[in-house]
Write a structure and sequence with these properties.
This protein is mostly beta strands and about 170 residues long. Helices cover about 10% and strands about 30% of the residues. It is globular and about 45 Å long.
Amino acid sequence: MVLTLGGGALATLTMAARIGAAAVEVIEMRGTERGDRVWFAPRGLAVATGTTLRFVNLDKGNSHTATAYHPALFDRRRRIPAGAQPWDSDFLLPDESFEVTLTAPGVYDYYCLPHEMAGMAGRIVVGDPADPGWEDASSDTEDVSPEVLASLPSAEDILARGRIGTELDG
């Protein structure tokens, strides 16, 4: 599609609009009304390389973060592929969102900074173990609480099911 602009200049639609936008997956940040439980929904998700994740805070009573486990962020041990860029959404108030695009194949673990001890963590599996450069750094459990480990589905289960948990117990 070609658009005519003032002065006779021509412009084309952006590359993404012409060839189809990249996939976007929504991960909700949730909590009970009383605030006694908090979670990401889904807590396990398999996506293709280049997928954008949109974290949306739908918890009316709490602010949340989506923070990758990485030494550059709060001096945490790395639980994302070595070639991946770490991310931190900062605090998202209710109805705010944050996006990150994952380009390196492998397993990504992330958490909510103020609610990590409540087990508010998630796992994204990007691509397939047969992909060049695939990495799963999630076996290093020294820096992670038992609550987080209990909340994370295995990469194998995520790959088999595609999406796990729309609630903490789901």
